[in-house]
């Protein structure tokens, strides 16, 4: 699974990357906070019909609209493409915010979220519900920064469709590719919005070509721009042969006109539009909606969110071309036969209400004051309240049906990514049906695998550092905060350093760890201290080694005696999971308990390699003999196996493996040389230099250890004009010189 990091190296974004003190939250929530303020100021929200008073009937029809009228969508893009600005406009035109936000100005959304003003990035995702022309839209905001790729993927799972936002001057960028691949994986139908058509350098054709070439998608041009860059005025609706021009004197873009193209006044545009229309109709044998659904083509629209152009047609396109929940083909629905099946896709900790869990309901219904069963946690717990995240208001509701996004209160154990059903027996019944289906298709899955909704692969963290509370007395508070944060964010790993007893945070990138640190302070009131950020290395052995060990210990009146003989050898799996084998001589007479004890011992030894204490990759372990004295506990067997394997690993020839990153730097021509010179010093390996409009795109590999703090360096080198993206490529062997330098550093010899 890719683990891509992107850093926009401009002043606004990362001036405070290392020393910020800001809380993180989504921009959607920020814009909703802003709305709340307006509500408090007494503004009238006529666009929430039925929510005033206690008219249960109309409230019911609002909270549970016909499923065909629901659109669960997300907005995905490369960092800075304009997701937040587009979202702001969407909320404004659909009537849920009363003034336009601008991520660059201090007077907007960011008034409420200092940290996002400084970093200008969307970190967490949350859902917001609103209506557009009789359709219920549940919009799930996704973060653009790659340290949060997992968040994007988690959101994609619960979407029925997505809008991919592009910067029309840049076309497809590094993270667009990543999220596009993720959307492919979850089979999410998409439409493309070429944003920033007003920007100097914006090119509709260039962006469309890049969609065709880099995403290998078939663009359906539903619109053409009227002008580009500063001359951008509006769009041509190719399907209806109409042009939509936004009134240049309207400061909020609500005022625009729709005019037919006429031979007299617009001969050139009419000709272009007619050609485009013919091409479109020729290209499409079936309706746009169907091809979008089948993901054989992607509708393309354009506009400028910042200049308030093109967003209303985008909303129309969402309702017309993206699927309703019932149009998605979810295989597992047949197993539940109308019983509840939902996916918890986001956990937030609310000081007053405790954990709030966002859920996508796939089948059945959810009611407050009822028990639900969590398949992942194998536990049953109670939903105390059920809320609908309707714009800024969390509306208490009596039930919510399939296709909707719910917010539950009261669940104490459910974590992000868990599958929720009505009861254990319902899970068992569904499992039986799934098994029968699996047998037909000759699939061999375990019960849990059959029922869990498509899992998100959690990438291995590449960075770690120690974290300390301000005093020993605060350790339990820190443990509690980390536990809550882990429920929200499964890509955060926490472990205990066995030697120092310190708590260690393992994360996806520098920013990820900084944000966690910051949230502990902001949300849990704990000032913690981070140790230096370290790269997560791995170790591997180069030759086969046999070892034997005996453990003889008497505890109380019980003697534990075990002798093991095993062999460790290198294999190519690129995995941290050791391959475990049994020699023919032992395979037959080993009990299940002894087997498990042996495997536990092997796993625990492989967690800490002999060179740096890093996990061991690419190893196979064969058990040759295991002699157990009667009464010996399985813990003692595991301990003996672990010690024996560590002995073998120590004796073997070994090497350190380091994370190697794919790097993509986009830089203007004049700064190319200093960037290349700097990369050469960082053991960088340049594969290709491409041209993208006026920029150069440098593509290559660089060891992660050499690229820490790169954002600051690149900013200085290029006066803040460059951006870069990093993605974990693989773990590669360090050369012997670099390895011995690292070892001397770690052992304090240099
Ligand atoms: N010229 C122009 N600039 C835009 C447009 N839309 C957004 N921007 C600018 O692009 C920058 C990034 O916009 P955001 O809306 O924060 O982008 P984002 O994709 O949400 O960014 P992340 O949340 O950090 O991934 C800001 O400076 C915006 O003002 C547009 O249509 N035209």
TrEMBL record:
Q: Which reaction does it catalyse?
A: GTP + H2O = GDP + phosphate + H(+)
The GO annotation for biological process reads: mitochondrial translation; ribosome disassembly
Please give the organism: Bison bison bison
Q: What is its main location?
A: mitochondrion
Q: Which residues bind GTP?
A: 77-84, 141-145, 195-198
The free-text function statement in the UniProt record for this protein reads: Mitochondrial GTPase that mediates the disassembly of ribosomes from messenger RNA at the termination of mitochondrial protein biosynthesis. Acts in collaboration with MRRF. GTP hydrolysis follows the ribosome disassembly and probably occurs on the ribosome large subunit. Not involved in the GTP-dependent ribosomal translocation step during translation elongation.
Under the heading PROSITE patterns, the entry gives: G_TR_1, G_TR_2
Q: What is this protein called?
A: Ribosome-releasing factor 2, mitochondrial
GO MF annotation list: GTP binding; GTPase activity
Similarity field? Belongs to the TRAFAC class translation factor GTPase superfamily. Classic translation factor GTPase family. EF-G/EF-2 subfamily.
Q: Which Pfam family, any one of them, does this sequence belong to?
A: EFG_IV
């Amino acid at each position: 699974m890719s683990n891509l990091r992107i850093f926009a190296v401009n002043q606004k974004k990362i001036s405070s990357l290392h020393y910020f003190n800001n809380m993180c939250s989504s921009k959607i929530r920020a814009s909703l906070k802003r709305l709340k303020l307006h509500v408090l100021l007494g503004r009238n929200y006529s666009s929430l019909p039925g929510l005033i008073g206690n008219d249960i009937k109309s409230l019911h029809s609002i909270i549970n609209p016909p499923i065909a009228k629901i659109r669960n969508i997300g907005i995905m893009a490369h960092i800075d493409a304009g997701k937040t600005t587009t979202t702001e406009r969407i909320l404004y035109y659909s009537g849920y915010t009363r003034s336009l936000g601008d991520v660059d100005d201090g007077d907007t959304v960011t008034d409420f979220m200092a940290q996002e003003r400084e970093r200008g990035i969307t970190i967490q995702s949350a859902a917001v519900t609103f209506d557009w022309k009789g359709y219920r839209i549940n919009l799930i905001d996704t973060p653009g920064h790659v340290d949060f790729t997992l968040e994007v993927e988690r959101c994609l799972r619960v979407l029925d469709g997505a809008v991919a936002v592009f910067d029309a001057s840049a076309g497809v960028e590094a993270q667009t590719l990543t999220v596009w691949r993720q959307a492919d994986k979850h089979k999410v139908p998409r439409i493309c919005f070429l944003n920033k058509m007003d920007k100097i350098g914006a090119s509709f054709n260039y962006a469309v070509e890049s969609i065709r070439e880099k995403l290998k998608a078939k663009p359906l041009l539903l619109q053409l721009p009227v002008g580009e860059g500063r001359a951008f005025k509006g769009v041509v609706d190719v399907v209806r042969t109409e042009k939509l021009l936004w009134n240049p004197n309207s400061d909020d873009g609500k005022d625009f006109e729709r005019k037919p193209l006429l031979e007299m006044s617009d001969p050139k545009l009419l000709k272009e539009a007619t050609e485009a229309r013919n091409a479109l109709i020729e290209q499409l044998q079936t309706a746009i909606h169907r091809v979008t659904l089948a993901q054989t083509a992607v509708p393309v629209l354009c506009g400028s969110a910042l200049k308030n152009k093109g967003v209303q047609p985008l909303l129309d396109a969402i309702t017309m071309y993206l699927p309703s929940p019932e149009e998605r083909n979810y295989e597992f629905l047949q197993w539940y036969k109308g019983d509840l099946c939902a996916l918890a896709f986001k956990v937030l900790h609310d000081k007053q209400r405790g954990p709030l869990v966002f859920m996508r309901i796939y089948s059945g219904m959810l009611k407050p004051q009822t028990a639900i069963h969590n398949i992942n946690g194998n536990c049953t717990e109670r939903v105390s309240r059920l809320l609908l995240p309707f714009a800024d208001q969390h509306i208490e509701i009596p039930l919510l049906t399939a296709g909707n996004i719910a917010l539950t209160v009261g669940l104490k154990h459910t974590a992000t990514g868990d599958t929720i059903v009505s009861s254990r027996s319902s899970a068992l019944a569904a499992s039986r049906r799934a098994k029968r289906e699996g047998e037909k298709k000759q699939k061999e899955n375990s019960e849990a695998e059959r029922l869990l909704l498509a899992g998100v692969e959690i990438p291995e963290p590449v960075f770690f550092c120690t974290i300390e509370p301000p005093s020993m007395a605060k350790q339990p508070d820190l443990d509690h905060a980390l536990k809550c944060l882990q429920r929200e964010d499964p890509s955060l790993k926490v472990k205990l350093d066995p030697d120092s007893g310190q708590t260690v945070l393992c994360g996806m990138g520098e920013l990820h760890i900084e944000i966690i640190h910051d949230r502990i302070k902001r949300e849990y009131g704990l000032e913690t201290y981070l140790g230096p950020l370290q790269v997560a290395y791995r170790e591997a052995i180069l030759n086969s080694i046999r070892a034997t060990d005996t453990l003889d210990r008497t505890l109380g009146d019980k003697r534990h005696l075990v002798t093991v003989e095993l062999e460790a050898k290198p294999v190519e799996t690129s995995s941290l999971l050791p391959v475990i084998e049994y020699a023919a001589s032992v395979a037959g007479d080993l009990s299940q308990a002894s087997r498990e004890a042996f495997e536990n011992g092997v796993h625990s030894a492989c967690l800490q390699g002999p060179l740096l204490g890093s996990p061991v990759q690419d190893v196979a372990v064969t058990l040759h003999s295991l002699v157990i004295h009667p009464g010996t506990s399985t813990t003692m067997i595991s301990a003996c196996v672990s010690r024996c394997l560590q002995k073998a690993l120590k004796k073997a020839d070994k090497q350190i493996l380091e994370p190697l990153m794919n790097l993509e730097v986009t830089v203007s021509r004049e700064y190319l040389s200093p960037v290349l010179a700097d990369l050469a010093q960082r053991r960088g390996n340049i594969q290709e230099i491409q041209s993208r409009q006026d920029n150069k795109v440098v593509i290559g590999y660089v060891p992660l250890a050499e690229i820490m703090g790169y954002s600051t360096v690149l900013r200085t080198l290029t006066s803040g004009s460059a951006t870069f993206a990093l993605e974990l490529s693989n773990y590669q062997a360090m050369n012997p010189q670099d390895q011995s330098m690292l070892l001397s550093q770690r052992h304090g010899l240099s």
